[in-house]
Structures are given as structure tokens and as C-alpha cells.
Amino acid sequence: MVVILDFGSQYSELIARRIRETQVYSEVISYRTTAEQLKLLNPKGIILSGGPSSVYDDRAPQCDPEIWNLGIPVLGVCYGMQLMVQQLGGEVIKAKKAEYGKAEILIDDPIDLLTNVEEGSIMWMSHGDSCERLPTGFELLAHTENTPCAAIADHQRKLYGVQFHPEVVHSVGGLALIRNFVYHICACQPTWTTEAFVEEAIRNIRARVGDKKVLLALSGGVDSSTLAFLLHRAIGDRLTCMFIDQGFMRKLEPERLVTLFKDQFHIKVEYVMARERFINAIAGVTDPEVKRKRIGAEFIRVFESESKRLGPFDYLAQGTLYPDVIESADTNVDPQTGERVAVKIKSHHNVGGLPKDLQFKLVEPLRKLFKDEVRKVGRSIGLPEEIVQRQPFPGPGLAIRIIGEVTAERLNILRDADLIVRQEVNKQGLYHKLWQAFAVLLADVNSVGVMGDQRTYAHPIVLRCVSSEDGMTADWSKVPYEFLEIVSNRIVNEVKGVNRVVYDITSKPPGTIEWE
Ligand code: XMP
């Protein structure tokens, strides 16, 4: 295992993902982890992430200086390198010129860390400070036009630093450098494979659950579906999936999901019809946060009463993923106060987010995985591509795509428009190119139109198509005009209550992907 000490960089998770791509397991942990604690974790390598601070800020986060003496190889990235330099007696200063974006690496010593990294490779830089003088024992491996120390090493102590970000895709030789670090410098073995994970997960589930019964809230998304497959493989019919139909899913989706799981996969699914309860719970509500909270609360109420009715169950399976585990850890650091920061934009609701105080013991077999790893696991245990590749769909469903009060009639309008979007996205081969493509109904807006010689006064539909890596940032997609034309024509002609279609050309940030 390689651990990443997180100093608050937006890229810390990405470093972990890149390392795992080399089939070496990695975890993100707090920068406050002491050398003693690290010894217990026994990693083969340590990476210090970047971060928003300057090493000479009063409250700049520091790592335990004993880390340098553990005999474990360390790679400092950006802030991590500057910290290494400063703590070991070198000098870091404010750079004459801050460097953001691409830079060409000029290699001074192509040894170990930089093997197979070509002279002139493009690497991604993002720093305002710069290392001015190296600590004793260090030598220069590479520089750039603006940065005299772009890569450094103390080979004796196996301490390395890079000013650039090898983890981002724009860094051309970045993966080669990471491979050099994990394989040649840390001597890791490529043991983190999907097959090994599945085997171990099944063993662990069996050992934990024994002959007891497990309940899983199924949504049809890739996480809960993969979880269902994994558990079914481990404990067969002692798994019961509960699917709560809130009434906010897309056209024909609930039926399709239940048929797939029951008839095709032979997994026990209890279908709970709760449409009326949910729509009543948000009757008259227009505020997005109130809507989200009421749906979340209703979900818990339904889940609790239904699990009593169907149970008893000993365990609850949750689709907690690794990013949820990291987020609850002590990671995001305010450079001014040294405190953890998290700004809540939306209250997320999904079936993995049931509160911990339900009277169940938990099984969370996906806790170690990133989303792309869940997809690989799902695929390897037979989950069909239509679920593996499914575009994300928010827990509160269409309710947060109706801007205004949610009513049965408005849901029907949106469902019909959404179906047309999905059909045309598929026809044009856009499904896998887009992170998401969907319709939003502006239910409180009416505009004037003309159809046949008649005046119309009806709602607009917003078409939202975005591309994204992880949903954290997103670009509005430059979809073909022809696609826009067909979707617009079809929606206006086929969906009663809609007389106008607009295309959302806002990226995230500053917009969010969903409208509520
Ligand atoms: P935003 O709108 O915050 O969405 O840019 C980012 C991604 O998250 C999805 N999303 C949700 N997923 N429960 C979920 O499971 C939710 O409450 C929820 N809200 C947003 C959204 O579809 C996008 O992919």
C-alpha cells in the first residue's frame, strides 16, 4: 500500500486513483497522521499531496518530521515537496513568477524517478512558491524554464519531490513517474486487481454475515446494483433487496429494474409502492433544499417501516464508496485557520445515505472503491452494461428536475420529455460520450408560442447535456445542432404542456449539474 498524506489539495484523490491504476492499493489519510501511526499502517511508500497553503504561512499544515526517518520512500508533490525542502533545511521562496498550466520538463538526471519520462515532456504546474535551495543530500533531477527545482531527490534516504502534478491527465509523463515511484522505488507488487478484490470481498462478507440475513436498499444505480450482485454471490437468498418506488423515476424504469433483478438475475427484490406518500410529502414545496430534505426523510420513514414488515434483518448493506470515507475524514484544510472546511451546496440523498442510527449492523463491501473501480467490479461479476454504464441519476430523481411544485401531472410531462431526450441521445450515439443528458421542466414559467394558427401558452423544457470526469466539475456539451433540432421538434410536438425547448450552456462551476 501507498498512503497519501492530504494537505487539502483538490488532487489528493486523483493521486490515489492513479496509483490504483498501477494495481497498487492506496489510501488518502490526514496530514496529521504521525510517524508512529504510519509505522503501524506499514505502507511501502508515502506521498505528500499538494495543498493551498504556503509553507511559510503561520498556520501552514506540517507533517510529523519523524516521517523523513522512517526509511519508507516519500514523494512530495507541489506543497508536499516544498514542505520536504523546508523541514529538511532547504529554502522555499515566493516564486518570481507563479506558474499555472503546462510546462516542459528539462531533465538534469534521468535516474530512477524519471526513467521513461522524456525530455521536454509536458507537466502540469500550479504553484506560487518555489524551492530556492536544496537541503543537504538532495540533488536536482529536473527543472523548467521558470522553475529551477522541478524534481529533486535524496537517493540515499529515498526522499523525492516534484513541483509539478504528475497525477493530472495533462501531465504527459506523469503516469510513468508514478509507476517508477511505486514499482522501482517502493518495490510494490501489482496486487490490487478487480479479481483479487472480488474474491476478498466475498470472503469477508461470508465471514462477517455468517448465516444471518441482509437487507439492501436498491436504486438501480451502479453502486447498489454492484452491491446486490456481490452480496448475492456471497450469501445467495439470504439477501433481500428493497426497491422503494418514490414515483420520481424515469418512464418505465421501476418496471425494468424489478424485472431485471427478479426474473433475469434471480435476486430477491421487494417492490414497495410509495408514490403517494412521497408526492404528499412535498406537496406545495418549491424550495429545493426543503424538497430534498423531505424526500430524504420520507425515504428513511418508508425504509424503516418496510424493513420491520419484511424482516427481521440482521445486517444492512450500504453502498458507501471511498470518496465518502475520505470526505468524512480530517482532510479539507483551511490555509488560514488550519481547520477543516466543507461548504454544503446541496443535501444529497441516495440509498447509500441511510442514517447510521438505524437498528442494523452494517456491511459496506465497497468502502475501499472509487466509482470507476465499482464499475470494473460490477462488470467482472456479470452486471449488464446498461447498469455498469448508466449515467448518474440523483436520489430525489425527477422531483429536483421540476422547478416549482411537483405534481403528478408535471411529473408526467417531464417523464415524456425525458424519454425523448434519452431516445435521441441513444440514436445519435451520444450516451457514452456524455456524463449526463436530461430534461428539466420550468413548471412555474409559461411562454407564448404558436402552433398551427393557435396561440399557445405553456412551459419550457431545459435540455441539459454535460461532460465530466467525476461530477465535481462539468462542461456543457457541444452536442450537434442536428441533435438539438430533433429533440426540440419532438418535445414541442409530442409533449403536451410544453411549447419551447432551451439548451443550458452553463458549465460547473459556476452552475451545478442539476438545477436544484
Ligand atoms: P450537482 O447538481 O451537485 O450534481 O452538480 C453532481 C452529480 O451528483 C448527482 N446528484 C445526486 N446524486 N443523490 C445522488 O445520488 C442526490 O441527491 C444528488 N444530487 C445530485 C447529479 O446528478 C450529478 O451527477
Descriptive notes:
This protein is an alpha/beta fold and 516 residues long. It has three domains: 2-185, Class I glutamine amidotransferase (GATase) domain (Rossmann fold); 194-388, HUPs (Rossmann fold, 3-Layer(aba) Sandwich); 407-503, GMP Synthetase, Chain A, domain 3 (2-Layer Sandwich), CATH 3.30.300.10. Helix content is 32%, strand content 23%. It is built from 14 helices and 21 strands. The protein has an eight-stranded mixed beta sheet with strand order 2-1-3-4-10-9-8-6, with helices on both faces. Strands 16, 17, 18, 19, 20 and 21 form a six-stranded mixed beta sheet that branches. Helix 5 crosses helix 11 and helix 13 runs antiparallel to helix 14. It starts with a strand and ends in a 13-residue tail after the last strand. The mean pLDDT is 93. Xanthosine-5'-monophosphate is lined by residues 345-346, 348-350, 392, 394-396, 436, 471, 508, 512-514. This is GMP synthase [glutamine-hydrolyzing]. It catalyses: XMP + L-glutamine + ATP + H2O = GMP + L-glutamate + AMP + diphosphate + 2 H(+). InterPro entries: Class_I_gatase-like (IPR029062), GATASE (IPR017926), GMP_synth_C (IPR001674), GMP_synth_GATase (IPR004739), GMP_synthase (IPR022955), GMPS_ATP_PPase_dom (IPR025777), Rossmann-like_a/b/a_fold (IPR014729). It is an enzyme of class 6 (ligase). Homodimer.
Q: Which structural traits does this protein have?
A:
GMP Synthetase, Chain A, domain 3, alpha/beta, 14 helices, six-stranded mixed sheet, Rossmann fold, globular, 32% helix, 516 residues
